[in-house]
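Listing S7. Sequence submitted for prediction.
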Amino acid sequence: MKRLALALPVVLIAACGKKPEAPAPQPLPVTVAAPVKRDVTVHRDFPSTLAGAQEIEIRARVQGTLSLHPDAPEFAGQKVEKGTPLFEIEPDTYQQATLEAKAMLARAEAARVLAGQRFERISNAREGSVSALDRDIAKAEFDEARAAESEAKARVEKAKINESYTIITAPVTGRMSRLLVDPGNLVGTGGSTLLATIIDDSTMLAYFEVPERAAIKYFEKRDNGEAQQVYEKPIRLKLADGSIYPTPGRIDYIENQVDTATRTAKVRAVFPNPEGALSSGLYGLVGYPTGPIPGDPTATEALLVPSVAVLRDLGGNYVWIVDDQNIVRRRVVETGDSVEKPVTDPNAPRSLETVILKGLDGSERVIVSGLQRAREGAPVTPVPAEQAPKAEQ
């Protein structure tokens, strides 16, 4: 009995020291979403630098001292109307030159009249009273006087033209550059001095180049009228900060040949700019709208998944999906272009969706968040995207 009494506490102590078995770990949660099928417009982007519809250099065309016109507006980025006076170049000096040319013309006209009268008298004189030599001299003097009159008239016209160059006005309505020559400087010596530039930015031009293969398709159709749709499609402009210019443009010109050096054809798109939001020299991506399915120009609908869900390794593009047993499975996919997801809230962050060409049918549950927890064959707890916290979406 004593030995039994000693063993009992030992058994009790051993029983108390045994740890209970830990519960099985719960599968980690992941956010899932089904692919979405909707109409998609894919844009083929081409790099471009914007230019104004007219970019004009304002130059001095006569020699003299430059001064600002009394009615000249402020420069450096200001918009001016066509015909606005900008500069003066010694207008009084050139007015005097015009008066001198007119005076020389009057003298030449008087000489021509006198020579004409003399020639007429000699021509009408009695036979034998005037020699043939005198008649020839009178005729030559009359012709010379007429030529001198024509020369004087040309000098008057030239003087008027030079006088018109002394008042320099804005050739178009546009935005002025800074002054490139300060008033008081002598201009027009040795050539036409560049004074400023003016840019008509009411319409902006975007030149870009398309590959030869795309140009061939256009050239094949341009003479039968089928290519007209190229000029009718709305063209998107994405600026350097990623923003989309709100007013679409259109293509208005396609080069009639392919550049043999670059194997591309030059194309021009026109964008209205009534508010002056665009400026010459800006970089932009010109987006030409196409269908989402390559090789099928009539297709408008496509299957899309969030671009963050599409992964890539040596085996190609793939997504993680969750099967009916909540097990993660790898699914190889063929992808198309990526497009921005449409949002109704202008303050919402932008996100991209990728077109799925092959590999999904739309019924799958694709993992869109928690991708670091996804492993082939691993159990997970799928949480629909609409129920997941915003931080995980």
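Caption to Listing S7: primary sequence and predicted structure tokens for the chain studied. The mean pLDDT is 88. The CA atoms of residues 83 and 170 lie 5 Å apart.
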